[in-house]
# Entry
Amino acid sequence: MTQGCAAPEQTIALPAGIDLSTQAVIQGVVSGTGTAYARLLDHSGEFTGEVVVSDEGIFRFFAAPGDWTVRIIAGGGVTKDIPAQARLGEVTQLAVAV
Amino acid sequence: MSRSAVLVDADWVEANLDADGIVLVEVDEDASAYDKGHIRGAVKIDWRQDLQDPVRRDFVDREGFQALLSSRGIGNDDTVVLYGGNNNWFASYAYWYFKLYGHENVKLLDGGRKKWELDSRELVKDVPNRPATNYQAKDQDLSIRAFRDDVVAAIGKLNLVDVRSPDEFTGKLLAPAHLPQEQAQRAGHVPTARNIPWSKAANDDGTFKSDEELKALYEGEGVDFAKDTIAYCRIGERSAHSWFVLHEILDQASVKNYDGSWTEYGSLVGVPIELGEAR
# Structure
């Protein structure tokens, strides 16, 4: 069945069954906040995906190769933008302190 | 309809948590979100388990919907307030679904679970015990649901609004970027569709933009409000969000959600597909 649109559980390791050679992954760890959301914006600043940051602070996106921005949205109106570059077959790792 | 008739804010929900005749319903694809904590008194509907036919690709039928709402203790006269994660995508889908089966009093919590969490409002794990009801659903209101032939017939004639991200629209991605990219169908969009991502209708905290901003958004992107409109995305839940904006907030008379969306259209044999920017 076609996967729905909810994000899979955000874990440190890539989910089982993912062939990294076909994916351009951007993932990271957020620290310094409680509940937070990670949003992926494309080169024009448009929304492309969003996940709830896990209790361990993990988020992950399966992007296309190219330049992206990760926006962390936290309580109190806090937002933080981090540029990221995705490459096919690689995991781009970010560390974000809010 | 109008914004005040279909949207409530978090303060309203907190003030009405114990009110008779109001039922909070959390709707997610990831049902574990509810189990980790939900608004007090809310019941759970699982987008996949509860709303989708387990065999065919379609909704549960009228009898199934009746059984679902009866089991959740929801009566025909109750006001249902829906909320959920993913910027209310699945709650919007459920809203449209409740309307499809004729439930009169439905509202969305503006901002959904995300705004509630970012505001650090209370979430509990206690599951409410609501007595079962004998809910009676109506036949599907097909004036708000589009099928694939409707979409093909609408090319070049009606407003086709593709609410996916620009990279999905142009064919760069096949799914939202928080999902592994699937390869089962062709990429691209329905010819003559305008790309108006659902996210342009929402603020960062998941709340809807103002009526004026929303109207300007769709008009500015070439939607002719004098024509009928079909909205689609990948599986029909983001487009339910845009359907909600167009039909419920902006009060457009004829707006349909194509729930087959790109996972169906992009797999059809022989239908036209465009790649790249809108023409």
The beta strands of chain A are 24-31, 36-41, 47-52, 58-63, 66-74, 78-86, 91-97. Chain A has a mean pLDDT of 87. DSSP finds no helices and seven strands in chain A.
